[in-house]
Design a protein that fits this description.
Layout: H1 2-17, E1 47-51, E2 54-56, E3 59-62, E4 67-73, E5 75-77, E6 83-85, E7 91-92, E8 103-109, E9 114-120, E10 124-133
Parallel strand pairs: 1-4, 3-10
Antiparallel strand pairs: 1-2, 4-8, 5-6, 7-9, 9-10
């Protein structure tokens, strides 16, 4: 019995030690460094998701020479244990197009500054986006 009592006591002590604790970050700034920026500006996006009826994000700003990659996420369950995929494409106002697809990726590199508008030819302006090259 003594062994059982000791084991129970050790388990109780171990459990009490797992109670967790929390420490707030120190606000002391004794070395005159600025506090960390908790809201840094968003990074330039170089990848865009293609979903059913949307591009995400719809507006992207990057520098000249940037490569943007669109990734299709347009397949979903059909309710019967199968999968249904919907084809979409990317058609730029300047005539460059991705071709119709329901999965995979497509990329375009932008060598000239300007604003490039695009849309899905199936959905028109309700599924559109803009790339700004600076």
């Amino acid at each position: 019995m003594r062994l059982a009592a000791r084991t129970a006591l050790l388990l109780l002590i171990a459990a009490a030690g797992c109670g967790g604790s929390s420490t707030a970050p120190s606000n002391n700034n004794n070395n005159n460094n600025p506090p960390p920026d908790n809201n840094p500006p968003p990074a330039n996006t170089t990848s865009i998701s293609v979903g059913n009826n949307f591009f995400d994000p719809t507006a992207t700003t990057v520098s000249v020479g940037s490569r943007i990659t669109w990734t299709w996420h347009t397949c979903g369950g059909d309710g019967y244990g199968g999968q249904t995929c919907v084809a979409h494409n990317i058609l730029f106002d300047d005539g460059v197009a991705s071709g119709s697809q329901s999965d995979g990726t497509w990329s375009r590199t932008f060598a000239t500054a300007g604003t490039y508008k695009y849309h899905c030819s199936v959905h028109g302006s309700s599924m559109s986006g803009t790339i700004v090259i600076q």
